[in-house]
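Q: Can I see a sequence and its folded structure?
A: Here is a first one.
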Amino acid sequence: MGISITAAALVLVSAFLHAGWNLLGKSRTPSPAFFCIATLSVGLSLLPLNIWVLLQAKALPSAFWLLLVGSGFFQMVYMGSLALAYQRANMGLVYPIARALPVLLVAVATVLLGQRLPGLAWVGMLLVTVGCLLVPLVYFRQWHWRAYWRADCAWALVSALGTVGYSLADKGALMYLEVALEGAVTPLAMAYSYLGMQFFACGIWLLLGCLGKRGRAQLALGLGDLKLGALTGLMMGVTYGLVLLAMTMTENVSYVVALRQLSIPLGVGMGIWLLKEPAHRPQLLGVGLVCAGLIAVSLR
């Protein structure tokens, strides 16, 4: 069974929003302080829901809180590295790599853990790898290891590693939360309450990173544009919620995961159209290969 029109529409809106909040982060002077304001705004706005859900739960084990703190740390790594990558490179380079590599890394980890993948997934992984190698290039003949020995590529890779880290931590934490709740709240309420807790933890980690002189200056600058930071946080939260809602409307969630990859060409297109970033043929071909590869991996 495929995906319904309503679910597909929700995922498409989510893809636009995901690319959109990255565009907002890139359009200003991207900094960890900006994402600190964005994540804390989500955490604080969902605080009443968090309290209500936690009151419905039985005693949560210490492992849950450790995973939550760990998830916030890896989310901080993701957000901070993303900001540092955007300071050095165009959205058209950073966004596809940071979006695609986590899926590729999780697939590789699956293989290393002894699980088998079908042929279509292997084809998808190959396409993603080649696509990521093409994205940083300006000319095809530039294909040389020095083209990737750059700070922007390194920070995009660290951002992807942060995504893998918080995804694994979230999976474990949500299992503990689900057991403690015993069906007392809806899955959507549980997911959103956890989202609020995770974003609040991430915001605290980012805030700790802003205690230095430079960080305080960036934080003060971000507070001067508080509405934009809060809007970015709202877009982050709504993006995740729409995906969760779409997953409840379809039996095969791989269709939802595959459709989400449309955010990659959307993000690159926004950078070219709205930020006037250059469009290079290797980059555009790489983005196409990444998108096709991720869809193949998602439909395995």
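Q: Show me another, different protein.
A: A second, unrelated one:
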Amino acid sequence: MGHKHTRSEILDGALAAAHDDGLSQLTFGRLAKRLGISDRVIVYYFPSKIDLINEVIIAMGSELQETLAQAFTEPAADHLELVRSAWPLVTTPEADSVFALFFEANGLAVSGREPYRTVVPTLVELWIVWAAEFIRGDPDEQRIEAEAAIALIDGLLLLRQIAGPESADRAARRIGIA
């Protein structure tokens, strides 16, 4: 009998496939071929494509949070200070891949496709709550500042993905975060 893949190995393979080819191209058949296994092995761990996509999005969210966690080490006074600390880390080639996947998931969510329409807003909400912990102040202000930080990071990184790093860097300098 061949190598028995674990759920974790299959999820890692699915996340790598999503990074390489995009979320919209992720299928049981393509993933099975990539991993050299039967698609029945994937179905054993992920009974539906929605289950697989949900887990890939959660794993992608963890990657994004890990990237941001490196910058969010000290409580910030406001969203600008938080974004200033994050900017050098979120503008690396490694982060570009993660954010490109995140923006694809956002586009699929905005177009109403499930499970993206349900999972992506939940993921963003979790990031806002998490980021609020890194801002000094009362809870209402922390949330507002976290929303502003996430919006600013996402906007600049979307510009980076579409118009290129130079454009995003110019905008970041104009805003005063780079």
